[in-house]
Amino acid sequence: MDRDGIEEMFQTLGPVTIKRMFGGKGIYHEGRILALEVQGEILLKADDESAPDFSAAGSRQWYYDGKSGKPVKMPYWSIPDEALDDPDVMAIWVRRAYEAALRAR
Fold it and tell me: What distance lies between CA 19 and its chain's CA centroid?
C-alpha cells in the first residue's frame, strides 16, 4: 500500500508518520506505533483489552515463525472485512488500534 492510501486509511486520527521497518512499514500517530504494513497488508495494534473484539470480527492475529520453529504471536491483527469498505467502520478500528497503542506504555 502506498503512503497516500495509508494516510487516507488513518485520516480520522490526524496525521500519521510512516517508517520503514522489518521489510514493511510502521505506522505511527503522535509518536506511538498503531499499525504495521507487512507484505501489502495493514495490521492494526491490539492488546488484551481489544484483541477479543478483533477476533470476534473475524480478524486474524499476525505471527511469524520463531527460531525454535514455533509461531510467535504479535500484537497486530488484520483489519476486519466490514471496515475495508466503510470509512466510518474503519475509523472505529483505527481508534481501537490507537487506544491499544496508548495503553502499551
Answer: 14
- pLDDT surpasses 90 at 22: no
What is the separation, in whole angstroms, between the first and last Cα of the chain? 28
pLDDT for position 87: 93
| 28 conformational bin, left if phi > 0, alpha if psi -120 to 50, beta if neither | beta
Q: Render pLDDT for 46-87 as a digit per residue (tens, 0 to 9).
A: 999 999 999 999 999 999 889 999 999 999 999 999 999 999
| Strand order across the 61-65 sheet | 17-21, 24-29, 32-38, 41-45, 71-78, 61-65
The Cα 78–Cα 58 span in angstroms is 9
Give the pTM.
Answer: 0.93
Distance CA 87, CA 53 (A): 18
| 3-state class percentages of the chain: helix first, strand second, coil last, to nearest 5 | 30, 35, 35
